[in-house]
């Protein structure tokens, strides 16, 4: 239902920055670090009402950079509505909600639902989705990604949750298309590692 939005280069850069639990100023600062490192997409989880202000600040700043900001941890249609009001480019959920999938599609907002089982992948496929968030990725691990691509070769996994520049490489090798990094943008070393990961991930295999 929303897969068409993810084709045509939406995730040409296979790393997204997940900026959770920061105030608006810090969110913008970390987003700018991520964009400077080569990241195109920033996700700001909105599990609390206060986090919507951080999302709005990042979305406003993204316009001047020509980048994209999405809302993460969207678990209700009400949160989706709040995200839509601040002009997000995409939404992400920790699980699969048909109501959120359908409302995102109605609003023209790309949506990534979270999956962790074969049954959830099948349910997502029935809704027309192949771009899926593997969550929590660090707990599922690369063996899960490789195993699920057996029966679901059309699945395109965005691995999020506990990802670092170090374990992200294993996820790419297992077949994940995109990884979400969080703490990498807290230091210059982390930024450099993220930038290097982007370069490596974009190299032909």
TrEMBL record:
It comes from the Bacteria. The keyword Lyase applies. The keyword DNA repair does not apply. Keywords: Carbohydrate metabolism, Lyase. InterPro entries: Aldlse_KDPG_KHG, Aldolase_TIM. PANTHER family: 2-DEHYDRO-3-DEOXY-6-PHOSPHOGALACTONATE ALDOLASE-RELATED, 2-KETO-3-DEOXY-6-PHOSPHOGLUCONATE ALDOLASE. Homotrimer. Belongs to the KHG/KDPG aldolase family. This is Bifunctional 4-hydroxy-2-oxoglutarate aldolase/2-dehydro-3-deoxy-phosphogluconate aldolase. The lineage of its organism: Bacteria, Bacillati, Actinomycetota, Actinomycetes, Micrococcales.
């Amino acid at each position: 239902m929303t897969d068409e939005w993810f084709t045509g280069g939406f995730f040409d850069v296979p790393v997204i920055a997940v900026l959770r639990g920061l105030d608006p100023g810090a969110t913008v600062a970390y987003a700018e670090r991520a964009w400077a490192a080569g990241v195109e997409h920033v996700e700001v989880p909105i599990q609390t009402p206060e986090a919507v202000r951080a999302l709005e600040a990042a979305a406003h700043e993204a316009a001047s950079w020509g980048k994209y900001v999405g809302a993460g941890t969207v678990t209700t249609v009400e949160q989706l509505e709040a995200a839509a009001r601040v002009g997000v480019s995409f939404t992400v959920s920790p699980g699969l909600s048909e109501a959120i999938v359908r409302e995102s599609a109605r609003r023209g907002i790309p949506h990534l639902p979270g999956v962790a089982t074969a049954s959830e992948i099948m349910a997502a496929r029935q809704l027309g989705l192949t771009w899926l968030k593997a969550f929590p990725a660090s707990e599922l691990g690369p063996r899960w990604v490789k195993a699920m691509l057996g029966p679901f070769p059309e699945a395109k996994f965005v691995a999020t949750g506990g990802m670092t520049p170090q374990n992200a490489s294993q996820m790419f090798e297992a077949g994940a298309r995109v990884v979400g990094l969080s703490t990498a943008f807290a230091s210059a070393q982390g930024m450099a590692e993220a930038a290097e990961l982007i370069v490596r991930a974009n190299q032909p295999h």
